[in-house]
Design goal:
By secondary structure, this protein is α/β, with parallel strands linked by helices. The protein has helices spanning 16-27, 73-85, 129-138, 150-161, 178-187, 197-200, 246-263; strands at 5-9, 32-36, 47-51, 90-92, 96-98, 108-111, 117-123, 228-230. Strand 1, helix 1 (16-27) and strand 2 (32-36) form a beta-alpha-beta unit. The chain starts with a strand and ends with a helix.
């Protein structure tokens, strides 16, 4: 039996790319559970829903207060840890496209580069020291990353002295995500558990635009070992997806699947 795949969405519409990515896990045979706070307009067939307020209240949804202030990434970084704490299965971001079924490994995460391990695909034991340490930092409203510059640490301390109840919205992008995960994995000497970059992140963030290049395919971005393809939060409007591009391949495959399902009568 394949492991359950969980994702979280904060909003009312997935969009074509995210919907196609979730559907790819259904197609691979996984039970897929989407954790939501509000009804979703474009929920893919076969995806179950879970009331996210059971694990996080809406008042706990924090957002950056700088250039990423519209992103729910801060809250999502915390929420995925609660999924793992409840031992609900694998967590994946909604922009991870499934190429082959994911294994039910005790620990599941992968390198996104030579120095960083990403948290878009994540699983670890609920009673592990790794999860405990990450949750302790991520849920601390006054968390100050050890890797911050002296100047940045001073700024955060000043915000605390000024009475800010939660200074996490002022953290740099990724502080509660890949940077925190990588920090504790290295501190605990667990790097050997991380999958090589081509398993989940064969297309680096710096090459994100190539995913919308008309003369490339999904296969061009992967290796024979790739289990998934992270498409890097591609909320690109459908009208901007280039025909013949990897993103078009992902979305078109999903649309064809939907059409086939609609045309197939019940037995």
């Amino acid at each position: 039996m394949l492991p359950v795949v969980n994702a979280v969405w904060i909003g009312e519409r997935l969009g074509p790319v995210h919907a196609a990515c979730l559907a790819s896990f259904v197609r691979a045979g996984h039970r897929v559970v989407l954790h939501i706070f509000d009804p979703i307009e474009d929920l893919p067939d076969g995806v179950e829903i879970f009331d996210a307020s059971r694990l996080m209240t809406k008042s706990e949804i924090i957002r950056y207060d700088h250039k990423h202030k519209f992103s729910p990434a801060l809250a999502a970084n915390i929420y995925r840890l609660r999924i793992l704490r409840e031992n609900m299965g694998i967590y994946v971001d909604c922009d991870v496209y499934c190429l082959r079924p994911f294994p039910d490994d005790e620990y599941l995460f992968g390198w996104e580069g030579n120095e960083s391990i990403n948290n878009a695909v994540l699983k670890m034991p609920p009673d592990s020291e790794l999860l405990r340490a990450i949750m302790q930092d991520a849920e601390n409203p006054h968390f100050v990353p050890s890797w911050c510059s002296t100047r940045e640490r001073r700024k955060l301390r000043i915000q605390q002295l000024l009475g800010h109840a939660d200074t996490r919205p002022k953290l740099e992008w990724g502080s509660l995500g890949p940077r925190l995960l990588t920090h504790h994995i290295k501190r605990l000497g667990l790097e050997k558990l991380a999958k090589d970059i081509d398993y989940f992140y064969p297309s680096h963030y710096a090459h994100k635009r190539l995913l919308n290049c008309p003369d490339l395919t999904v296969k061009d971005h992967t290796t024979h070992r790739s289990l998934g393809l992270h498409v890097w939060s591609s909320g690109i409007p459908i009208k901007e997806i280039q025909p013949g591009s990897p993103l078009d391949e992902i979305v078109s495959g999903y649309r064809s699947q939907k059409q086939l399902s609609a045309e197939t009568p019940f037995a």
